[in-house]
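We emphasize that the prediction below concerns an isolated chain of 267 residues; any contacts that depend on oligomerization or on bound cofactors are therefore not represented. The input was used exactly as deposited, without trimming of termini.
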Amino acid sequence: MLTEAKNTIKFISQYFSANLQSAMEYRGAFLSQVLFMFLNDLMLLFFWWVLFTKVESLGGWNFQHVLLLHAAVSGSFAFQALLFGGSFSLSRTIAEGRLDFYLALPKPVLLHVLVSRSAPSAWGDLAFGLVMFWLAGSPSPGRIAAFLLLTFAGGVVMASFTVLAKSLSFWLGHSSGLADQLFEALLSFSLYPEGIFSAGTRFLLYTLIPAAFVSYLPVKILSEFSALHALLLILFALGISLLARFVFYRGLKRYESGNLVATIAAD
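Result of the prediction step, given as a token string:
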């Protein structure tokens, strides 16, 4: 099992390196994408800065908490987009018969689909997350390592939720619109302080739309470390990834092969 884990990590790192080298072939375009994504994230935070110049706290959250919130969400999204970028186009891959290519390869189908793509602009999200974490205060090598681990776990949650949503295409056909709406709901709820939501909404955000595990729990852990919260985040990330794997492979049994040559030619 240890050898298999090492081989999997090596496989992911090789794809990650290849995707990065591909993006760096056009450095000007790469750097502009990174810069514009950083500025886009900064504009989303501007609203909260203006609001907290008028109020001291909101639902028990202050501006430092919001900085950590946006840092966590940006970092989590960056890990999903950089390592598991294929998750965003999974609906089309299924509905258009593009899984044929991956079925012919030796590596696990789902893993291969997920790591086959990467979004270069997400480096801007990662940079933004690290800068906001730094501005939130008390950065240290240990806390930075903790931040990266927590956002990686958040990225696993986001990628797994995306796989669950996109796997609906096995049963519904072209359902990318619905899947995108579900992902947008996860992302949108993650960017608002937990304290502004009712108890019922918070229950939803800890279950069906797991925004809490992308932002709220990481913020709590970084603000005041709790072994219980850290364990809960790790177990949930593991659980939802296993659930996503189960649903995907269950749907794969229903998969009807498309014409791969025609599909590629259509691009």
